[in-house]
Amino acid sequence: MSQHTLKLHVHFDIEHILNEMQTQGFSIIDGLYPLEYMQALQQECSTHLDQFRKASIQDGVMTEIRSDHILWIEPHLTLASKHIEQLACLSQDLNRYFFAGIRDIEAHFSCYHAGEFYALHRDNPQQKNGRVFSTVYYLHPEWHDDWQGQLRLQDIQDQWHVIEPQPNRLVLFQSDLLHEVLETKQDRLSITAWMRNSDPVLG
Predict the structure, then answer these.
(1) Where in the numbering of this chain does the Fe2OG dioxygenase domain appear (predicted)?
(2) What is the spatial distance between Cα 64 and Cα 60, in angstroms, rounded to a whole number?
(3) In whole angstroms, how large is the CA radius of gyration of the chain?
(4) What is the pLDDT of residue 56?
(5) Residue 173 and residue 137 in contact, taking contact as beta carbons nearer than 8 Å
(6) Residue 3 carries which DSSP code?
(7) N or C, which terminus of the chain has less Cβ within 10 Å?
(8) Which of 177, 187, 185 is nearest to 153 (CA)?
(9) 3 state SS for 120-177
(10) Could you tell me which residues are beta bridge partners of residue 172?
């Protein structure tokens, strides 16, 4: 498969996604991509692992609340860029339904090595950074329950959910929801992306 000729189109179940977003503030989409594309995306991520750096919070400030490593996605990462294109299509539907004003997406690869985590936080504290919806797409080829590394999230009804990082799963949620990544026992690969109503400032 050529990275440059690959055509990718995902049919999102928009009605189901919008219903879940309205009732609980998050939605889970399983089996997002064809296996061939998912495997190629895994390879693109793995090839660049030596370029990952320790993550920070806003404005490049290092913090003890997270210990993952990231690589911001730029156009030369062609397969990951196709994932962003699909999220941009989804954002158009979210705009029409929620009048969210989304006009940009920022994203990075994320790697949690064994023992790493991200403590409780919100992606858009005090509505200051333009993030409206957050997404995480799980890239690792397999995952077992005892490897942990789950996403723990509080929905708009203040109910807590523990979401397994199953391969080829996309989780979409409101950026102002409280959430955390539990300590993982195995390398955990993903793409984290935010749909924004303002320009990103990469940190």
Answers:
(1) 98-197
(2) 13
(3) 16
(4) 64
(5) no
(6) T
(7) N
(8) 177
(9) EECCCHHHCCCEEEEEEEECCCCCCHHHECCEEEECCCCCEEEECCCCCCEEEEECCC
(10) 27, 135
Q: Which helix (H) or strand (E) holds 17?
A: helix 14-24
Question: Hey, what are 187's tokens?
Answer: 């390398």
183/154 Cα distance (integer angstroms) = 17
Q: Which structure tokens are listed for 134?
A: 């957050």
Q: Map tokens 């998912």 to a residue.
A: 38
- The span from the CA of 121 to the CA of 178, in Å, is 5
- Please choose, from the candidates 112, 110, 174, the residue with its C-alpha nearest in 3D space to the C-alpha of residue 149: 112
Q: How many residues does the chain have?
A: 203
pTM value is 0.91
Residues contacting residue 22 through CB under 8 Å, at least 6 positions apart: none
3-state class (DSSP) for residue 54: strand
Domains identified in the chain and CATH numbers: 15-196 (2.60.120.620)
* pLDDT, one tens digit for every residue, the chain (203 residues): 445 456 677 888 999 999 999 999 999 999 999 999 999 999 999 999 999 998 865 544 445 688 899 999 999 999 999 999 999 999 999 999 999 999 999 999 999 999 999 999 999 877 678 999 999 999 999 999 999 999 999 999 999 999 999 999 999 999 999 999 999 999 999 999 999 998 655 44
Measure Cα distances from 203 to 54, 70, 71, 73 in Å: 11, 10, 11, 12
